[in-house]
Write a structure and sequence with these properties.
Elements lengths: L3 H13 L5 H11 L9 H5 L2 E4 L5 E4 L7 E3 L8 H5 L6 E9 L4 E8 L7 E6 L2 H17 L4
Antiparallel strand pairs: 1-2, 2-3, 4-5, 5-6
Helix pairs in contact: 1-2, 1-5
Length: 147
């Protein structure tokens, strides 16, 4: 499981990103433990160690480092559709708009049952990355019990 500190560090790397990144896609998939649609569910339970490879793929292995498999994750940092899949259950996409005052994209997510207390924001020069940041902030809020 990803710790709050690891998730915050990933958010900081996304905020500094200059564009889509295969390595960041893999790091996001590892942090969120996102399996490809074609993967059987037993992959997650049989291979508890997840890591981002330097080639931008996700690798899962047994605790002792043996066995496992790897795949290329979705292009979260380069696709709105892929970034939307990161929005955690219970959260709703609210808006993605160009903020002309700060010359960036702003993404907003709301926590469904309590939109008054659960809001996750993301800002970046690139819309996909703003949405990724907002989704990871929503996941961080879940881990910390705030959504």
């Amino acid at each position: 499981m990803t710790t709050p500190a690891e998730l915050r560090a990933l958010i900081k790397r996304l905020e500094k990103a200059e564009g889509p990144s295969l390595k960041l896609n893999a790091e996001i998939a590892v942090a969120c433990r996102v399996l490809p649609v074609s993967a059987p569910k037993w992959v997650d339970t049989n291979f508890p160690t997840w890591r981002a490879r330097k080639d931008g793929r996700v690798e899962v292995v047994h605790t002792d480092g043996t066995g496992g498999t790897f795949w290329e994750p979705a292009h979260y940092t380069g696709s709105l559709d892929a970034a939307l899949t990161l929005v955690p259950e219970g959260w709703m996409f609210s808006e993605l708009r160009r903020n002309h005052e700060y010359n960036c994209w702003a993404a907003k997510l709301r926590y469904g049952p309590r939109p008054d207390i659960g809001i996750a924001l993301g800002e970046h020069n690139i819309g996909y990355l703003a949405l990724c940041i907002a989704a990871l902030r929503a996941r961080l809020a879940q881990i910390e019990g705030k959504g």
